[in-house]
Design goal:
By secondary structure, the protein is mainly β. The protein is built from 4 helices and 15 strands. It is 10% helix and 42% strand. It has a 6-stranded antiparallel beta sheet, covered by helices on one side.
Length: 276
């Protein structure tokens, strides 16, 4: 029996525009994702900056050092310690944000520790910022597609970073760093929890597809604002003996409201859920 492509293909068909800009976020010049290595390191180790506070960032700019924030670092070894064995570096990617400003992204693992992502921004030889993020699950490096995509995710006109973590189990996962008003990058909260996510740069929406059970598929639409995600719409497809049924919900006055419930394809407009 024919399956409706709305939920199967929407994520795989969504195109992403890669942008290149000035140090600390740009306003709309086109570019690529930088150089990539599956193993080994492409950037200097820099000086660790675990704190996400403005004071911590300022201190790092001034003297190249900052104290580790236990809430961020925990028991995670430093990047330099993990990088001593290049076999533990799962992915390394780097590129330029401007003539003097560059970035590097590394995914690495040390011993029995979970995988960790290290994101650095450099001004010449000085480390402007370093984020060290425990991933919380194993990453299979050979399943990573485009390691880093740079585009405006939250609609503020500044360039953000989308990271591909590849496939864990049967779902694809990732991370997102957004540029903030302090001129620094921070984690887009909740993005890592999305399953099979994809960003549509034409609508500014983030799509997520979930397969909860054999007969139930769900696609969610999220809008990013600042470093927060908001669920703005969802569509579920359920198959029973009478065929495919759809339930559509949308954000109305701050609450999710049911627009259609268990209706066949002929009674619902699926146009926006089919990305052409």
């Amino acid at each position: 029996m024919r399956r409706i492509t709305a939920l199967r293909c929407v994520l795989g068909c969504i195109g992403v525009t890669l942008l290149l800009g000035a140090c600390g976020g740009s306003e709309g010049a086109a570019g690529g994702e930088g150089s990539v290595e599956g193993r080994g390191m492409t950037e200097g180790s820099g000086t660790a900056e675990g704190s996400s506070t403005a004071e911590g960032k300022s201190a790092a700019r001034e003297n190249g050092t900052a104290e580790k924030n236990d809430s961020v670092w925990g028991s995670v070894p430093s990047p330099s310690e993990a990088a001593e064995d290049p076999e533990e570096v799962l992915m390394s990617c780097s590129g330029y944000l401007s003539e003097d400003c560059r970035y590097s992204v590394q995914i690495w693992k040390s011993g029995s520790q979970d995988c960790v992502t290290t994101f650095r921004v450099f001004d010449g030889e000085k480390t402007l910022q370093e984020l060290v993020i425990p991933v919380g699950f194993d990453i299979m490096a050979d399943t990573i597609g485009t390691p880093v995509t740079r585009t405006d995710v939250n609609g503020d006109g500044k360039e953000d970073f989308l990271l591909d973590y590849g496939i864990s189990g049967q779902i694809s996962l990732g991370e997102c760093f957004v540029y903030n008003e302090q001129g620094l990058y921070e984690v887009l909260e909740g993005y890592r929890d999305l399953s099979n996510s994809a960003f549509d740069d034409k609508t500014g929406l983030i799509y997520e597809m979930r397969h909860d059970e054999a007969r139930l598929y769900e696609v969610n639409q999220y809008q990013a604002s600042g470093n927060k995600l908001t669920l703005v719409a969802s569509l579920t497809e359920y198959y029973d003996d009478d065929g495919f049924l759809y339930t559509e919900k949308r954000l109305v006055d701050g609450e999710m409201a049911t627009i259609h419930e268990n209706v066949p394809e002929g009674q619902i407009d699926l146009t926006e859920w089919k990305y052409h």
